[in-house]
Amino acid sequence: MGALRTPREGWIEEGLRALAEGGVDAVRVEVLAKALGVTKGGFYGYFADRAALLTEMLDTWERESVDDVFERIEREGGDALDKVRLAGQLTFSSDRLRPIDHAVREWARRDPDVAERLRRVDNRRMQLCRDAISTFCSDPDEVEARSLLAFCMAIGSHLLAADHPGRTRAEVMTRAADLILSPSPGTAAP
Fold it and tell me: How confident is the model at residue 184, as a pLDDT?
């Protein structure tokens, strides 16, 4: 009986791991094969070339970080604000998705096709924020500003090294989310 073939998903998963750890330049067929403990010949049974693997990695990232997250928040239920909070937790607090997301953002800085993919993903995520904030705020300018703040906080909080004297990062993040995702005095409900 011959050796078992490394499944296609194994190559994609190892590619995503390499991307998260070292950026797109770390995603090399030889390196992935070594990490998987196989020869690179099996790679070409699944993928025409490295570019085909990279495309499938982006497809997997998009499906997991948007489609799967959106499906889960719908299953979990709750109001629009509960859903946007859960989406942020699932995506940007996830030890799996957060590093991949950051690596895709870095990759998008130098690849216009990846930048377009990231724009599509971020537009879907921003719309979730807009929909949630629109449940208590009717001013479109304020909805957009709050959505931007919420999204920037979710993406960038892991990059911030500042201390919060007398408070934990979790306490500050919770308070910031409450400020952004709650009506303020004078905020008109729709």
Answer: 78
Please give the structure tokens belonging to residue 162.
């500042």
100 neighbors 63 (Cβ within 8 angstroms) = no
Residue 91: how many CB atoms within 10 A of its CB?
22
Span 52-77, mean pLDDT? 96
pLDDT value at residue 5: 63
Give the domain range for residue 128: 8-180
Cα–Cα separations (whole angstroms), residue 49 to 25, 70, 100, 143, 170: 15, 31, 21, 44, 43
**Torsion region of 178: left, alpha or beta (phi above 0 gives left; psi -120 to 50 gives alpha):** alpha
Question: Residue 188 and residue 144: Cα distance in Å, rounded?
Answer: 15
Q: Tell me the mean pLDDT in the region 143-153.
A: 96
Q: Residue 100 and residue 104: Cα distance in Å, rounded?
A: 6
Tell me how many domains the chain contains.
1
Helix axes 97-108, 80-92, angle to 10 degrees: 80
For residue 171, is it within any domain?
yes
Per DSSP, 66 falls in state I
Does some domain include residue 150?
A: yes
